[in-house]
Amino acid sequence: MKLHHCLLLLPSLLFLSCSDEKDYVPRGTTNPLEILDLPAVAYDYNEQLPGYFFLNDGGPVPSSVNGIDNTPAHNPITNDGATLGRVLFYDKNLSLNRTTACGSCHRAEKAFADSSPFSHGLYGQPTKRNSMTLVNARFYQRGRFFYDERAASLEDQVIMPILDHTEMALDPGQILQRVAEQPYYKQLFIKAFGSNTITSERIEKALSQFIRSMVSHNSKYDAGRAQAANMREPFANFTAEENRGKDLFLKPFSEGGVNCYACHTTEAFVSHNIGPINNGLDAASGTDLGAYGFYTSSPEMTGAFKIPTLRNIVLTGPYMHDARFTTLMQVIEHYNSGVKDHPNLSPWLKGDDGSARQLNLSEYDKLALLRFLYTLTDQTIMSDPRWLDPFINQHL
């Protein structure tokens, strides 16, 4: 649902409040931006990525992110636009009872996922699915969002949780009103868009810019990759176990690997435009029909879900859309011995006979695969001030 309204900033609309609702603006503030922990000069949200992100290494599956960036031409990342998006992302005024923000369910310390199996909205009600990480959202080539891909773009997606009755529960007019009420937004909109006019389109653009800026490239894997000619050769900073896990992950079955890279590909470790898949969690779909809930003319989408990035996967548990796995080793064991013959099981998970393939790895190889996944952890995601909550004075 696209929202393209302008709000007339009528004085009668600017002072609505409830006695039990918190207001982030402290009494006596002379500069509205004092409430926010923002730098005098906006952070650089267009940080240059390592060169190897844009080079193919000669392997059977592309490693370059060229051509998979879903940033639309009409909404490039700007420093001031992403700054505005950061404030909107963490602003609890954008929920009906002012208790919940986007950042409540996408937490920096969890690589912008959530530790709860199901996130909880403004009244403590659980959401339908586990929160997916926002890191590397920019490199999901199909440009669709949510596990069922019901949002056609990130710009569509960012407004939906604010409208959702379980999550934040505002209506379109209330979103604009809540933003207009806060005095710190006037200057932020002027910097981002050249005027203080508040529209839904501008809110969507700013939030999308902030989220697309979240790209991970400071892991142990990256330190090794920077010294290697390609991702397939042994990394000098890896242990033997980690290099073994990398081999298993990257190589197809014909080369002695387990073909994880077919679904989690490129240097961003994202799905390379293959769309939602069924990964054999169950032999038959139950109440959650996955992408079929949106692609109702495509029965092959029953039980199929969007593939997440594996960057920072150690931080984003629990795992799968329904959070059924608590640990990464449980995930590995699923692919090792637990893949079910669902009617829509992805061809990537079938053996030569057409049935569900079980990897049957040794204990050493399962552990090696786990050790490799740990190398994809980027600790800077949790501490980079560009992406942290700017409301440091919210309790004043």
Overall CATH architecture of the domain at 220-379: Orthogonal Bundle
Mean pLDDT over all positions: 91
Number of DSSP helices? Answer: 12
Order of helices and strands: HHHHHHHHHHHH
The chain-level structural class is mainly alpha
Quote the CATH topology of the domain at 220-379: Cytochrome Bc1 Complex, Chain D, domain 2
CATH class of the domain at 220-379: Mainly Alpha
Give the biggest beta sheet.
none
Ends: how far apart?
Answer: 36 Å
Shape: globular
- CATH superfamily of the domain at 220-379, by name, is Cytochrome c-like domain
Low-confidence stretches: 1-28
Key features of this structure:
globular, mainly alpha, Cytochrome Bc1 Complex, Chain D, domain 2, single chain, 396 residues
Describe the protein in words.
The protein is mainly α and 396 residues long. It has a domain of 160 residues: Cytochrome Bc1 Complex, Chain D, domain 2. 25% of the residues lie in helices and 0% in strands. It is built from twelve helices and no strands. Helix 1 runs antiparallel to helix 6, helix 1 crosses helix 7 and helix 9 packs across helix 11. The N terminus is likely disordered.
Draw up the topology in text:
Layout: H1 79-90, H2 102-105, H3 154-157, H4 160-163, H5 172-181, H6 185-193, H7 200-212, H8 220-225, H9 240-250, H10 328-338, H11 363-374, H12 380-383
